[in-house]
Amino acid sequence: MSVRCVRTAREDGEEVRQLLVEADALSGEYEIEVVDGEIYIPLDPAADPRSIDPELEVVERDLPRREAQTFPADILGFEPSYERLGDVVIVAEDDDERAQTIADAILASDVRAETVVNRASPIEGELRVRQWDVLGGDDTETVHREYGCEFELDITEVYFSPRLATERHRVIEQVESGERFFDMFAGVGPFVVPAAKRGAECVGVDLNEAAIEYLRRNAERNGVTDRVTAICGDVRDVTGYDGWADRIVMNLPHRADEFLDTAIELASDDCRLHYYDIQPDSDPFGPGEAAICDAAEPEYAVEIETRHEVRSYAPHELNLCLDARLRRR
Question: Is 80 exceeded by the pLDDT of residue 278?
Answer without folding.
Answer: yes
